[in-house]
């Protein structure tokens, strides 16, 4: 399951949340969390390798449109290993930044594998573990008639607030760690 999940997530065929949910449902919390965190971490390597081989000219067009994002990528690539891992972890912590895009851009900008793996492990672990816990609690998924509709509404509201709050906090941390003037110094990524 680990290798299949890692390959599917790394090649952007399956979202990491699905791997986490299935691991929780099928393996329970401790084993499911270990497999899901391991799978998403290995998936980052798969995505990084695929991004290096298949990226083409699309990232260069992205750099021209998104100077701040390019500055973050360049800062990660140029940072010492510990700081690079911290920056990758913050990106992974954000629910807004897509997993596969991060892998591809990390490859294109020359982010080293070690910081990518460590940042992925630390940044995705909380979210992966939370989804594993949800998956472990599923007996079956039945939305037809929820027993407490207010509970579903409260869960949706709490999720939306969490996603917005986490995205806002991560964006603020990244802006403090990557100075704005770095966006002006962004060069072409290494391909």
From TrEMBL:
The chain crosses the membrane at residues 114-138, 150-169. It is found in: Cell membrane. GO terms for cellular component: plasma membrane. Coiled coil: none annotated. It comes from Phycisphaera mikurensis (strain NBRC 102666 / KCTC 22515 / FYK2301M01). This is TVP38/TMEM64 family membrane protein. Belongs to the TVP38/TMEM64 family. Signal peptide: none annotated. It comes from the Bacteria. Keywords: Cell membrane, Membrane, Transmembrane, Transmembrane helix. Residues 14-136 form the VTT domain. It is a multi-pass membrane protein. The keyword Magnesium does not apply. It holds the Pfam family VTT_dom.
């Amino acid at each position: 399951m680990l290798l299949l999940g890692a390959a599917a997530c790394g090649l952007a065929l399956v979202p990491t949340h699905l791997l986490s949910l299935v691991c929780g449902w099928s393996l329970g919390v401790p084993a499911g969390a270990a497999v899901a965190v391991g799978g998403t971490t290995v998936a980052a390597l798969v995505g990084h390798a695929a991004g290096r081989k298949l990226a083409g000219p699309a990232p260069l067009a992205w750099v021209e449109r998104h100077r701040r994002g390019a500055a973050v990528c360049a800062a990660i690539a140029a940072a010492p290993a510990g700081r690079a891992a911290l920056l990758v972890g913050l990106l992974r912590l954000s629910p807004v930044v897509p997993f596969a895009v991060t892998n591809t851009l990390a490859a294109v900008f020359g982010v080293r594998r070690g910081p990518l793996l460590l940042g992925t492990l630390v940044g995705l672990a909380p979210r992966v573990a939370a989804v594993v816990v949800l998956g472990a609690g599923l007996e079956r998924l039945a939305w037809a008639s929820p027993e407490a509709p207010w509970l579903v509404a409260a869960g949706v509201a709490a999720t939306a607030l969490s996603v917005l709050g986490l995205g806002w906090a991560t964006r603020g941390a990244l802006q403090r760690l990557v100075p704005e003037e770095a966006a002006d110094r962004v060069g072409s990524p290494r391909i």
